[in-house]
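Bug #77: duplicate submission created two jobs. Keeping one. Sequence:
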Amino acid sequence: MNFSIIIAVYQRKDELTELLSSLEKQADKDFEVIVVDDGSPVSLENIVIQFKSKLKISYFFKENSGPAKSRNFGMEKAAGDYFIFLDSDTIVPENYIKIVRNSLTKNYTDAYGGPDAAGKSFTPLQKAISFSLTSFLTTGGIRGGKKQVGKFQPRSFNMGISKKAFEKTGGFGNLRIGEDPDLSMTLWENGFETQLISEAFVYHKRRTSIKKFAHQVYQFGVARPILNQRHPKYKKITFWFPTVFSLGLIFAVILLFQMQHTKVWMYIPFLVYTIYFSLLFWYSLMKTNSMIAARMTPYIVIVQFAAYGYGFLKSWILLNIFRLKPEKAFPGHFSN
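Kept job's structure:
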């Protein structure tokens, strides 16, 4: 297999430098790197030039269109027969390429995904956000089927597809948000299989502020009903979980602050949430080894579920009750 690593990036020169530095240190160096600058105001070519003597690397600049079209552009320019996508805010362990190559040699699929982790140098907030998005106690536990070939939905921060799959499906669609599950389901519909390579993890910085994080997961929530319309076969009742969780928390707080607590059952909902948040704290402390991150975790989970749940509910109502076209309801979610 000839690997082409495709990095679609907008600005983020410091993150790109870190990612390229980690690729330079790979134990398996048999790959090329395609950097697609998605219309950055200041060209990133000078960053790429620094690695010309260390990596087989190419730089392309194009008008801004979002990550999906930029990745497709990169695949069109790539020489390999298997394409690997990495986000600019990731750092790759030195055995990453070696692990992917060995895994696909033993158990080939036309697409794969790998998990993400928080690095030791990450801030407590980044560690708390990473835990919130990946733990089995949160939405990381309801994605399902991770060990089953054909059932795992890769995420584009750490994902690969074959040239054959790209040529048959056309690659990523016109979504700016949710483009990776959209591609996964398109691959399934065209007879291709996906898998999780659990050892092929990357360190993923994700968002660096609560406001940015909330906006990101809100956008993910909006995207899910759009994806459900495109791929109705893969709708799941669990997609409603963050919305139900958030509404339930509001209900529990309202009951708690009622003037008269004459009935014991009125305390039960809040007690359930309290137990859940306590579990989050202790499990986060165990996984992150950071008291600050652990203390942040319950709050981050509330932000995640509330923002995602609101986006999901808003999108579902506009698309299913008011019957709006997704492109009209959420034009920012689509590439031109």
